[in-house]
Amino acid sequence: MAELTAWQIYDLLNRRGGPLWLSGCDLSAAHLRGAHLVEADLSLANLQRANLAGANLERANLTGADLEGADLSGASLVGADLTGARLMRANLTGANLRDAVVNRADLTEALLVEANLRNTHFVESVLQRADLGDANALKAVFKGADLSGANLTNANCSNANFFDARLEGAILDGAHLRGAMKPNGDIYP
């Protein structure tokens, strides 16, 4: 992995032109708060403990990226690809992941409180003990996902797909599930 100095990161973020290509870079603990990373290629990048609060990562490629413990609170990840990403204990409070692809990702103990997860795909992802309290998961796809022990208190999961998902110990108090598909294929009334 390429390592960048704080000055090199600052220089890259302030250049104008096409999207940034930072595939495989070591950006661990980098301060990228509010950064403009639209359509950036951050695939396989090390972003552990990075501060990406309020960053614009719309349509960014984060496939296989390591975001363990990263702060993505209030970030925009609309249409981003996080397939296979590691997001354990990441803070995505209030983040916008509408239409994002987060398939086969690990979000163990991640904070997704009040996040916009509308139409987001979490196929075969691990969300064990994740906090999705008050999240908008309207039409989200959790097919085959592991939500064991997850908190979905007051989450809007209307028309979401939980087919073949694991919900053992999940907290669904006050969750809106109208029209959502249960793990066994039945539909919530």
Task: Describe this entry's structure for a reader.
This protein starts with a strand and ends in a 163-residue tail after the last strand. Helix content is 4%, strand content 2%. It has a two-stranded parallel sheet with strand order 1-2. The protein is low in regular secondary structure. The chain is elongated and about 55 Å long. The chain has 1 helix and 2 strands; from the N terminus they run βαβ.
Q: How many individual β-strands?
A: 2
Secondary-structure element series: EHE
What percent of the residues sit in helical stretches (DSSP H or I)?
Answer: under 10%
Q: What are the low-pLDDT stretches, counting only 5+ consecutive residues below 50?
A: none
Give the overall shape, derived from the CA principal axes.
elongated
Percentage of residues in DSSP E strands: under 5%
Count of runs of 4 or more consecutive helical residues: 1
